[in-house]
C-alpha cells in the first residue's frame, strides 16, 4: 500500500506527475472523479486547521467523494483507543485516511495498520502537502522548478523546513535554509535531502548567514516562529534577524516571489509590506493546496487499486 507520509515518499518522476495532475485539475476541477459514489475519505485533526480541512473537504467533493471529518481529540486517538485500532476501523469506513497529528511515529503507525492510503496533513516533522502546493505555485510563477534557488528563513528545525529540504531537493531545486544556531534542521533530514539533490541536480545549504541564504534567490519563504504545540515564551527573539522584510527581500532576485504556508504573523516572521505586497503569492499557495491534494488522492487511490491514473 502506498502512503504519503513524508516528501521523499515520492520519486522525482512521481512528484512531477502529481504536479502535472494538479495543474490539469486546476484548469478543469471536475475532470477526474475517482471518488464518485461517493467514496469516503477520513480527514482527522489533532491540531488546529483552516486551509487543510477546507481544501481537503472541497477537493474530495470535487473528486466525487465525501469528506468524513473526524475530530481527533474527540476520538482520543492513542488514548481512548490505540492508533492501530483507529487505523483498522477507519480502513473499513473510508478509502483513504488524511491525518494531522503530533509525532511522525503516530502517523507511521496509522499507515502500518491501515489498509487504505494514509496521507500526512502535517506532523511535528513534515508538512508534505503544503510543499507540493508551494512547488505548484513556484512552477506557475517561474515556469520551472529544477535549478530554481529557494531560501527558507526562520525556524529551521520545524516541519516546513524539513519538508522544503526533501521536497525541493526532489524537484531539483537549490534549497537554502537560513536559521539561527540551535534551530537547524535534523541532520538526518539534511543528509536525506543531500542524497536526493545529488541525483536530481539540486543542492542543499544550511547556514546561519542570512546573506548566504537569500542572495540572488528566486523564491523566499518563511513560517511562524512558534509552531502548533510549541510554547512561545522565550523562543522568538533569536529569530528576529531572520524576519522577512523589504530590506531582506532586496537581496533576493528582483523578481523573487514570497511564500508563506499561513497562518502568518505580520511584524514577526514577515513584514506586512512583504506578505501583502506584489511579490507575495500566499493566496495562490492556499488555493493550490486543494489542487495538489486532489492529485495526491488520485495518485494513491490508483496505486491502491493497481490501475494507471487516466487523465
Ligand atoms: N510550522 C507550522 C506550520 C503551520 C501550517 C506549524 O506546525 O504550526
UniProtKB/TrEMBL annotation:
Gene3D superfamilies: Aspartate/ornithine carbamoyltransferase. This is Ornithine carbamoyltransferase. Residues 147-300 form the Aspartate/ornithine carbamoyltransferase Asp/Orn-binding domain. L-ornithine binds at residues 159, 223, 227-228. GO terms for biological process: citrulline biosynthetic process; L-arginine biosynthetic process via ornithine. GO terms for cellular component: cytoplasm. One of its GO terms (molecular function) is amino acid binding. It catalyses: carbamoyl phosphate + L-ornithine = L-citrulline + phosphate + H(+). Pathway: Amino-acid biosynthesis; L-arginine biosynthesis; L-arginine from L-ornithine and carbamoyl phosphate: step 1/3. Residues 2-140 form the Aspartate/ornithine carbamoyltransferase carbamoyl-P binding domain. The keyword Transferase applies. It is an enzyme of class 2 (transferase).
Amino acid at each position: 500500500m502506498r502512503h504519503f507520509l513524508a516528501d521523499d515518499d515520492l520519486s522525482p518522476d512521481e512528484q512531477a506527475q502529481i504536479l502535472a495532475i494538479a495543474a490539469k485539475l486546476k484548469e478543469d476541477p471536475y475532470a477526474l472523479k475517482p471518488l464518485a459514489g461517493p467514496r469516503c475519505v477520513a480527514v482527522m485533526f489533532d491540531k488546529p486547521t483552516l486551509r487543510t480541512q477546507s481544501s481537503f473537504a472541497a477537493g474530495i467533493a470535487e473528486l466525487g467523494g465525501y469528506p468524513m471529518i473526524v475530530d481527533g481529540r474527540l476520538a482520543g486517538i492513542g488514548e481512548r483507543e490505540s492508533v492501530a485500532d483507529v487505523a483498522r476501523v477507519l480502513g473499513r469506513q473510508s478509502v483513504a485516511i488524511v491525518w494531522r497529528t503530533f509525532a511522525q511515529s503516530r502517523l507511521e503507525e496509522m499507515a502500518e495498520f491501515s489498509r487504505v492510503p494514509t496521507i500526512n496533513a502535517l506532523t511535528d516533522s513534515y508538512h508534505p502537502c503544503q510543499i507540493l502546493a508551494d512547488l505548484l505555485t513556484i512552477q506557475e510563477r517561474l515556469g520551472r522548478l529544477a535549478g530554481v534557488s529557494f531560501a527558507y528563513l526562520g525556524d529551521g528545525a520545524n516541519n516546513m523546513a524539513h519538508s522544503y529540504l526533501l521536497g525541493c531537493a526532489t524537484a531539483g531545486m537549490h534549497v537554502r535554509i537560513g536559521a539561527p544556531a540551535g534551530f537547524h534542521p535534523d541532520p538526518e533530514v539534511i543528509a536525506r535531502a543531500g542524497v536526493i539533490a545529488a541525483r536530481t541536480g539540486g543542492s542543499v545549504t544550511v547556514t546561519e548567514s542570512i546573506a548566504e541564504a537569500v542572495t540572488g534567490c528566486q523564491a523566499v519563504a518563511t513560517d511562524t516562529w512558534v509552531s502548533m504545540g510549541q510554547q512561545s515564551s522565550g523562543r522568538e527573539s533569536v529569530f528576529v534577524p531572520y524576519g522577512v522584510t523589504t530590506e531582506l527581500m532586496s537581496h533576493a532576485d528582483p523578481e523573487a516571489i514570497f511564500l508563506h504556508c499561513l497562518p502568518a504573523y505580520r511584524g514577526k516572521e514577515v513584514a506586512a509590506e512583504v506578505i501583502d505586497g506584489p511579490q507575495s503569492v500566499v493566496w495562490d499557495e492556499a488555493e493550490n493546496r486543494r489542487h495538489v491534494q486532489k492529485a495526491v488522492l488520485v495518485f494513491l487511490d490508483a496505486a491502491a487499486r493497481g490501475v494507471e491514473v487516466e487523465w
